[in-house]
Amino acid sequence: MRVTESPTTTPELIEVRGSRSVRSLLRAAEIDTRLLGMVAALLIIWVGFHFLSGGTFLTPRNLWNLSVQTSAVAIMATGMVLIIVSRNIDLSVGSMMAVTGMAMALLQAEVLPGIIGFDHPATWIITLVVGLALGAVLGGLQGLFVAFVGVPSFIVTLGGLLVWRGLAWALASGQTIAPMDWTFQLLGGGSRGTIGEIPSWLVGIVACIGIVAVLVSARRQRRKYGFRLRPLWADITLGAIGIALVLGAIGFINRYYLPEILARRYAEAKGIPWPEGGLNIPLGIANPVLLALGVALVMTVIATRRRFGRYVFAIGGNPEASLLAGIKTRWTIVKAFMLMGVLVAIAAAVATARLNAATSGLGVLTELYVIAAAVIGGTSLAGGIGTIPGAVLGALVMQSLQSGMVLMGLEAPLQDIVVGIVLVIAVAIDTTYRRRQAR
Amino acid sequence: MAHEMTETAPLVEMRNMRVAFGGVHAVDDVTIDLYPGEVLGLVGGNGAGKSTLIKTLSGAHPGDSGEIRIDGQAVVIVTPRDAKALGIETIYQTLALADNIDAPANMFLGRELTTRWGTLHDTAMEDATRKVIGRLNPKFENFRSSVNSLSGGQRQSVAIARAVHFNARILIMDEPMAALGVAEKAQVRALIRQLQQEGIGIILISHDIHDVFDLADRISVMLQGRLVGTVNKNDVTIDEVLAMIIIGKLPEEVTEKELEELHG
Predict the structure, then answer these.
(1) d(CA A90, CA B249)
(2) Does an H or E element contain B73, and which?
(3) Tell me, what's the ipTM?
(4) Number of domains in chain A
(5) Architecture of domain B12-96+167-262 in CATH?
(6) Full-model pTM
(7) CATH number of the domain encompassing residue A81
(8) Residue A21 — very low, low, confident or very high, per pLDDT cuts 50/70/90?
(9) Between B79, B105, B124, which is nearest A310 by CB?
(10) What is the nearest CA distance from B137 to chain A, expressed in angstroms?
(11) Is B6 a residue whose pLDDT tops 60?
């Protein structure tokens, strides 16, 4: 899919056109060209589907839905990046989603009501905390087998794929557990599970302040040590683009309004007379999307600004050197699997809340989507290379393809064919790109 | 530079070290010592056990038996962390760099500088790295690209910089000049002499006998896992050391005929 990034695939052509300046421009601005290529590919997919689907893709409604549908896979993909970077794999995330989702459902639907009553305000918090702890335990257990017993992660998590799925079934004897707690449901999005118009703008403003703060502090740091600074124009342009993207996205999402039936009900309840052109109540950012963005931010900090993240990358680059440098490589691996488990539990909470039910079939084949998202996002299966924003973009690309094909009315098996081909082509292009860069 | 063995206590004593892999004795009852401000050359053919011996000191592979003393105190070195805590730094033959991260990240690997928020202080680490590597290799520029894009000499500079930055008292250098050009080699030689002057004890492993003769005060020779002997550089000729390496005979045992056959 990064075919679009022609500067790398046909360098000769580009040189002739004199775009060398573009490349040196990007280099001066220290922009990750691979990430930029992914964004370009995503935009092309979006515009392409917009035309192919007769103008239904690039609508606030569709993009809002797309963002909600992407969140669970995106949350897990951020953890899968670290797992794959450390030269491991986790095939169990789909099944682990089912078992943690089932445990959380049972807790809030059958256990807690008997202790603290139905729809107690603390139910969702207790459920979530227990669910995350369970995820950490299951992930950590797999990590222990990988790091301390030395069973390849492929095998350990293949076992996990079977065991956790079976356990999810056994927990409820194969029954579907529903409904979820009234507050817990908010985690899943839906018309109630959003933050509304004004808070969405506030989130956007906080994000903009964050962008400026990061750029300014990086500049200040580099000046303090007398390093060469990134050109001021580059910093200003980057900041402006970032702010424009954030505010543009929020403005667009805020044009998705509460469906008319619900809006009428709302108007009735509030005693507002139904206005002429309808009542437009923006839903704002959905809770799971906000959660996914928060997870992506935290995971980026963990991956790039914390010792643990640095060690995961070092282990992926050279396990022996990491050991000789005095890193506790085994514990680092265990921690990575624990983190993965926690993220799976968060995704499971989002998915069960959204479905308002838990079944033992939750997350079948999801492990493949999560791995594909990480890999499309530039994570190398050989280890040592990968980024969190890349994985989130990868998840968005996968979901965009699926959602676009649904809008086009393509049959499910045909969708699989497209997704499979895209996965292989994306990695093929990435591999070629890396080889050219390494020269 | 030459130490007075009778006056100074050894910095490192390795006594009766043994390491076995399966049934093979890679290191068999070897005893060596190292004094402050001394360069000890450790030489021998391939598979003589040099690297295995120093791995017991650097914590990369603990010995099966034997005793290690630092400043006369018996110590236990099981992990690289133990060795570093005792002021032992090692430049490995393989360089032991993580190829996918940059030079500052490699230099501070396992000992990162952090900000008061607990996050990595990349600018401070880059600054320190620039200073240390700048001394070794003034032309070094790529501080922010992953080390797999660097030349062999530059990678070696990173590995050396890492070993000298953390105020080591004992420095183990396993083939430190293998990938270096002439100018870079000269820098490393100057560095070794400077470190020696600062009182650091250095164990130098090299296949280049001329380098060893140039830099070492004493030379320990290993053959098939055993120590042939340790000689004072000023008391022997290169040929006599070669005889120790190849036929395992000490200068006083070796005959004129055998020395001539070495050049056969």
Answers:
(1) 57
(2) strand B73-75
(3) 0.91
(4) 1
(5) 3-Layer(aba) Sandwich (3.40)
(6) 0.91
(7) 1.10.3470
(8) low
(9) B105
(10) 18
(11) no
